[in-house]
Design brief:
12 helices, AhpD-like, mainly alpha
Length: 228
């Protein structure tokens, strides 16, 4: 890739992402074709127009803020982008609350499933709600109230399902039961396979944070800036 092509690629990234970072600089110099491919992968779902731009930003907020990842800098940036795309503060707040609850579901679902397999008399094929009632109805009620509180807000049922799917499908989570439930829920709320695919690709784009963190460190080592 020549100098002019690199300059054009930099301009495209700034236009698409709204910023330019150090890891971009290193990749532009050392692996420009990878950087170009990353831009296509990252921008594909938003450029396709399959999902509203603010919903794409909701997905990014959710996967950045989930306790499986906790990338505050990215979440702040995507909150700004969401508001610029027409989202309301109340919508962004509900995304944060919903993400909190969805992440809390993962240990409960998986843990109760294992418990049902290990304790005689607990049929493992029963759903989490039934198992909650079998083990401790009072605790089950607190979780259901917690989940219901996060569902109250301006997001549509379809938006809630797609954001929840993103949290479960992110490479830092890969929560299969949640993915399956929220794919079903999204389809039931009118989501199309293309919309679901777009959400999955947005979630998968979280993998670029390996480069966000790793590439500057790589360059530091090459420059002799070693960890003491």
């Amino acid at each position: 890739m020549d100098i002019a092509e690199k300059a054009a690629l930099k301009d495209r990234i700034i236009e698409a992402r709204g910023y330019w970072a150090r890891f971009h600089d290193v990749l532009l110099e050392r692996a420009p074709r990878f950087l170009e491919a990353y831009l296509g992968f990252q921008s594909g779902p938003t450029d396709s127009g399959v999902l509203p731009r603010k919903l794409c930003e909701f997905v990014y907020i959710a996967i950045d803020l989930s306790v499986n990842h906790m990338y505050e800098r990215g979440a702040r940036r995507h909150m700004e982008h969401a508001l610029k795309a027409g989202a309301t503060p109340e919508e962004v707040l509900q995304v944060i609350l919903l993400t909190t609850v969805i992440a809390a579901r993962q240990p409960i679902d998986l843990g109760l499933k294992v418990l049902a397999e290990e304790v005689p008399g607990f049929p493992p094929e029963r759903g989490t709600a039934s198992l909650m009632n079998d083990v401790d109805p009072a605790l089950g009620a607190t979780y259901r109230a917690y989940a219901a509180a996060a569902e109250s807000g301006p997001l549509s049922a379809k938006e809630r399902e797609l954001v929840s799917l993103a949290v479960c499908a992110a490479p830092t989570a890969l929560f299969e039961d949640g993915i399956r439930d929220h794919v079903r829920g999204a389809l039931a709320q009118g989501a199309t396979p293309r919309e679901i695919h777009a959400v999955l690709q947005l979630s998968a784009a979280l993998s670029i944070h390996t480069c966000t963190i790793g590439i500057p460190g790589f360059q530091d080592v090459l420059d002799g800036k070693f960890v003491e």
